[in-house]
Input
Amino acid sequence: MHYPVSVGIIGDISESLNALTDALAGHRFDTDGAAPGCGLLADEFARGQQDSRFPLAPQRIVADTRAALGRSDVVLVDTGAAKMWMARLYPTYERNTCLISNGLSTMAFALPGAMGAKLAKPGVKVLAVVGDGAFLMNSQEIETAVRERIPLVVLIWEDGGYGLIEWKMDLELGEHHYVSFTNPDVVTYAVSFGAKGYRITAADQLLPTLKAALDDEGVSLIACPVDYSENLRLTDTLGHLDETL
Output
C-alpha cells in the first residue's frame, strides 16, 4: 500500500510527539463539532441493524457482532474484506478490544491470536472474525484450543472466495479470476475437532447464535454467509462523497 504524506517527520516517535505538543502549546482546537463523516458511519451502522437480507449484509454482521460483545470483550479481525468492514464500522469503547493486523496485514492471524488474547485476559469473551479463506489457512488451531481448553468463538464470514482480492480486481481490472474455492461443512468440521458448529441460515439467527456461543465454555465455530455485493457499492459511495468534499 502507498500512503501519500504531506509533511513527513523523521525522528524518535516520543520526542517528535513531545516537540509537536510544545509547538502547539496555547493553540485551541474546536472539539465541540463531530468529526466529518461520523454521522454517515452512524447512519450506515443503524441501517445495518435493520437489514434482514440473506446472505447477510456486512453492516448487519458488524452490528450484531457489536451487540453480542460487551465493552471489555475482545474481537480479533483477520485480513480480508471482513477487515475493511469491521475497521470501518465497529465501535470500540476501551483500548485493545478490537485487534487488527493492519500493518503487515497478516492473513490467518485472528484464530491463534484469539487464543493468546484469551490466555492473557481469561475474564473476557474473545471472538475471532475471519474470512473463509483466512480460516482455512490456520483452522487446525481449533484442535489446539479444544485440547488446551481455551474457550473462544470463531465467526467465519463465508463467501467461498478471497473477497478482498476480488474487490480489488474488480476495481482495477473490471473483472476477477481464480479467487473462488469450496469450503468444508463447517459444522461437521467443528464437531470433528470436539468443538461446536453453527450455520446461519437467516439474518435474525446471527445475534442469538453469537450470544449463545460466547456464553459457552468451549470452542465454537459459526459459519455466516455474507453478501459482498456491498463492496463495490461502498466504493461508489465513497467516490461520490469524495467528489463533494
